[in-house]
Amino acid sequence: MHTPTPQTPARIRTDWSRDEVDALFALPFSDLLFLAQSVHRQYFDPAEVQISTLMSVKTGACPEDCAYCPQSSHYDTGVEGERMAPVAAVVAAARAAKANGATRFCMGAAWRSPKPRQIERMADIIRAVADEGLETCATLGMLDQEQAASLRDAGLDYYNHNVDTSASFYPEIISTRTYRDRLDTLQAVRDAGLKVCCGGILGMGETPADWAEMLHTLATLPEHPGSVPINQLVKVPGTPLAKSGDIDPLDFVRVIAIARILMPASHVRLSAGRTEMSDELQALCFVAGANSIFYGDTLLTTPNPDRNEDLELLTRLGMRPESPARDRPAPRKATG
Question: Which of 13, 104, 121, 137 is catalytic?
């Protein structure tokens, strides 16, 4: 396997072999972190962290049966179905997020796939948020290319649609849609000219082989996701995964580091589950190449660290929020 060095900028590849991914998992921890940090510095300022804020614009009553999700109508988690938030309420939240340092505002709705009227209402919300000068991201379930194009025309920058886990383990977590459905939505989003946000969840009972398979899937998409959220399972009472076992924190760091190496120009986002992470674990994740976080007290319906705690941690680490306009080396195109 070719090993990038600080003197040789990492080539953006979409042709990684599974053997190469497995070889990264086999590296000694210190060697892996050194390689990940070396690659990270070729594309990003290691002192900067991109700040996103996530708001649920339509909560609960989702018909999907994702075993981790408190918004599924299949489980009794205490989350009640709500109507879509009015445009004014979303804009107010976006303004507050921007004032607190966020550069991207993400909006989630608990749908399997939005209906035409719902796309129209989301388009109105997206236009209003984009007018506030924020990058926009949405996660609304499955989309076709026409729906994605409508959202793009309204000013949407990113679309989030996680693969969640490996194709092999996926049937253990979700039965109401297939892995192929996930990949088809990602293709529709790319074809519409939107940027992709796509990652997964660790701690659902999968194995390290599933982590390798998931990362291999992401790193061999036709184009790497612009953002790669890596979530630690939030064990919500009432969901089938409420009593899942914990994963080794160092394994979580390994996945962050390997995501950075495989997708060097992507923002790797330290996402759900941070309330259960120590400051030291989060610091290791930043060393491993994580350079994005969700900022705010909640992530859709699950808890997130207080924003002041995040700012204090970044200050202690000598880090700062990423500015909206950045100047970093242009990624090299994949070859071969």
Answer: 137
Segment 302-320, tens digit of pLDDT: 445 556 788 888 889 998 8
Catalytic residue selected from 13, 66, 104, 152: 66
| Stretch 64-77: mean pLDDT | 82
Catalytic residue among 69, 152, 182, 190: 69
**Is 11 part of the annotated catalytic residue set?**
no
* Helix, strand, coil shares, percent, the chain, to 5: 35, 15, 45
Active site residue 69: yes
Question: What is the average pLDDT across 211-231?
Answer: 95
What does the alpha-carbon distance between residue 1 and residue 20 come to, in Å, rounded to a whole number?
A: 6
- Note the pLDDT of residue 230: 94
Give yes or no: 269 in active site. Answer: yes
Q: Catalytic one among 13, 106, 177, 274?
A: 106
Q: Let me know how many helices (H) and strands (E) the chain has, helices first.
A: 10, 12
DSSP 5: B
Task: Give me the chain's average pLDDT, please.
Answer: 86
Q: Give the CB-side neighbour count of residue 74, counting CA atoms within 13 A.
A: 14
Annotated catalytic residue within 197, 198, 254, 274: 197
- Is 106 one of the annotated active-site residues of the chain? yes
Lookup: tokens for 61 = 């009553």
Q: Which residues contact 268 (CB under 8 A, 6 or more apart)?
A: 227, 228, 230, 256, 259, 260, 289, 290, 291, 292
CA distance 180 to 168: 12
Question: Would residue 62 show up in a list of annotated catalytic residues for this protein?
Answer: yes
Closest CA to 199 of 229, 171, 237, 240: 229
What is the four-CA torsion angle of 259, 216, 22, 12, rounded to 10 degrees?
-60
